[in-house]
C-alpha cells in the first residue's frame, strides 16, 4: 500500500499536493507495521497518510507553506501526528496548503498552487483551502487519508470542492500542540478522507486530552466507527433559514433540498430553524481570526524559527525583524497581521475586537438555543459554489475570497463539530458538499448522520 501511494505521488507532481515527500520514513514505518504481530496491530497499522504542512513533524520540514519558515525542521512532533504514528500509520510526506492556513483556494502557498484533480475543460481548478493539498491528495488517491486543520472552514471547504469527506471536530477534541497556530481559539485539527467510515477511524486515533494543550478537553474518546449504524430514525435535523443567502446558485439550493429529502427518507424529522446572528459571522470571524493571528505570528522574528533576511553592516535588531518579516511573509499574511494589529490597537479595540467577541457569544447562543430545542444536527450547504479556476480571483477584492467561508465560519466561532460530505454535483459535474453541524462532543452522532447522507 505504501509503495503504491509513493509511486502515485511521484506520478502526480502536477497536482502539487505533496510538498515534502518522506519515502524513507514511510518505508521504515511500513516495514515495522508489516513485522508487527497481529495482536499488537492498532487501528491504522500500515495505513499511509499525508500530513498538512501546518503540523510540526520531527526532523521533517514544517513550513506552514511560508517562506519565513524555510529551513525549519522541528525538534518535536505534534501530538496529533504522534498519535497517528502510534496507531501504526505511515507518513508519506507533507501536504500543500495556504500560507499559515490563511486562504480558501491554496493560492497563497510559497510552494505554488495545489491543483484539484477534478477539471473543468482545460482549466485547473482550486482544490479549496487552506487544506488544499490534503484534499487534492485524498481525492486523487495519493494517500488513504490526510490531516487537515480548520479555523474557518479549511477542512470542510476543500473537502466539498474535491468530493471528499472532511470533519472539523469540536474545539478541544484534538490537541493543538505542535500545530503552527493561526487563531488559537478557532483552530482545530481533523481528518480528511474518502468516506465517512475512514473519518470515524482517523478521528478516534487523532483525538484525546493532551496535558500539553490546556484547551484540549478531558473527555473520553468513543469508538466513532461503532456509532455508524445507519439508523437515524427519530433524529431531528434543523435547516437554518439564514443560510439561504442572496444570490445563492439554484444548484446549491437544489443540493440542500436533496439532502433534506435523503435525511427524511432515512427516518429523520426535518424542521426549519433560525440562527439570527448568522449575518454577522463573516465580519466577526475576519476580526477575531486576524487579531489572534497578528499575536501568534509575532514569534517569527528571524531568531527563533526558520529564515532570517540577509543583513547589511550596521543593521540593528529592528532592521533584522523588519527585513525578515517583509520578505518572509506573503501578501495575505501581511494583510491579516495589519488588520489584526489594527483591531487590537488602543482606540479601536472596543469598537472592533471586543465587539466581535460579544457577537461571537451571540452566534454561539443561537446554536445553543436550537440544540436545546431538540435539534440533533443542522444541515447546510458547505460552500456557495463548486471549485473555481485557479487564478480567477487574482484581481478580486480579498473580501470576495472571504465570502467562500460564509457557511463554515459559524461552526468555528461556536466551537462545534462540523462535517462536509460529498452530496452531488453542479451542472459541469463538479463535486458539491453538504455540511452537518452537531452538538459539542457528539461527533459519533454527527458521523452517523453523515453516513446516512453518503
Ligand atoms: N478561509 C479562511 C481564512 O482564510 C479559513 C482558513 C482556515 O480555516 N484555516 O481564514
From TrEMBL:
EC number of the protein: 6.3.5.7
Catalytic activity: L-glutamyl-tRNA(Gln) + L-glutamine + ATP + H2O = L-glutaminyl-tRNA(Gln) + L-glutamate + ADP + phosphate + H(+)
UniProt xrefs under Pfam families: Amidase
A single cellular component GO annotation: glutamyl-tRNA(Gln) amidotransferase complex
GO molecular function: ATP binding; glutaminyl-tRNA synthase (glutamine-hydrolyzing) activity; transferase activity
GO biological process: translation
Keyword Heme listed: no
Catalytic residues (UniProt): 52, 130, 154
Keyword Protein biosynthesis appears in the UniProt entry: yes
UniProt cross-references to InterPro entries, sorted A to Z: Amidase, Amidase_CS, Amidase_dom, AS_sf, GatA
Enzyme class: ligase
UniProt signal peptide: none
Organism superkingdom: Bacteria
Residue span(s) of domain Amidase: 1-447
UniProt keywords, alphabetically: ATP-binding, Ligase, Nucleotide-binding, Protein biosynthesis, Transferase
Gene3D superfamilies referenced in this protein's UniProt entry, alphabetically: Amidase signature (AS) domain
HAMAP family: GatA
Protein family (similarity comment): Belongs to the amidase family. GatA subfamily.
Subunit text: Heterotrimer of A, B and C subunits.
Described purpose of this protein according to its UniProt entry: Allows the formation of correctly charged Gln-tRNA(Gln) through the transamidation of misacylated Glu-tRNA(Gln) in organisms which lack glutaminyl-tRNA synthetase. The reaction takes place in the presence of glutamine and ATP through an activated gamma-phospho-Glu-tRNA(Gln).
Name of the molecule in the record: Glutamyl-tRNA(Gln) amidotransferase subunit A
Taxonomy of the source species: Bacteria, Pseudomonadati, Pseudomonadota, Alphaproteobacteria, Rhodobacterales
Gene name for this UniProt entry: gatA_2
